[in-house]
Amino acid sequence: MVSDEERAQRLDALHEVIELMRPAVQSDGGDLVLVAADVETGIVEVQLQGACSSCAVSTTTLKAGVERIMKERLPWVTAVDGGVDEEFDWDESQAMGRGGYVPR
């Protein structure tokens, strides 16, 4: 079982890693949002938004990019699940192109 102090440290570190990655995703017109994190099992859920909703390589971004970086920097992370914002309009997402998305 993870102590409250360790839980807080893990969540703080997770937020730092996400903030480290967001500018790269945002530069392509998207964004990266933390949906949930189970610091005991190491399962993190994220969502790609903006232009990522229509991007053909969004799954690769999640697995080869986001998950790889999180596992390298946060040894307690065992898996990163997620997807794209399905509610986002595909045509609008596609039109955003590079750098057109402004996070909320």
Radius of gyration: 14 Å
Count of helices?
3
CATH architectural category: 2-Layer Sandwich
| CATH top level assignment | Alpha Beta
- The first-to-last residue Cα distance is 35 Å
Main sheet strand line-up: 1-2-3
Main β sheet profile: 3 strands, mixed
Number of strands: 3
CATH topology name: GMP Synthetase, Chain A, domain 3
Task: Explain what this protein looks like in three dimensions.
It is a single chain. By secondary structure, this protein is of the alpha+beta class. A three-stranded mixed β-sheet has the order 1-2-3. The chain has helices spanning 4-26, 58-73, 90-96, and strands spanning 30-38, 43-50, 79-84. The protein has a single domain (4-89), classed as 2-Layer Sandwich (GMP Synthetase, Chain A, domain 3), CATH 3.30.300.
Outline:
With 104 residues, this protein is of the alpha+beta class. It contains 3 helices and 3 strands.
Q: Strands, helices and their partners?
A:
Elements: H1 4-26, E1 30-38, E2 43-50, H2 58-73, E3 79-84, H3 90-96
Parallel strand pairs: 2-3
Antiparallel strand pairs: 1-2
Helix pairs in contact: 1-2
Considering the chains and any ligands shown, give keywords for the structure:
104 residues; alpha+beta; GMP Synthetase, Chain A, domain 3; three-stranded mixed beta sheet; disordered C terminus; 22% strand; 44% helix
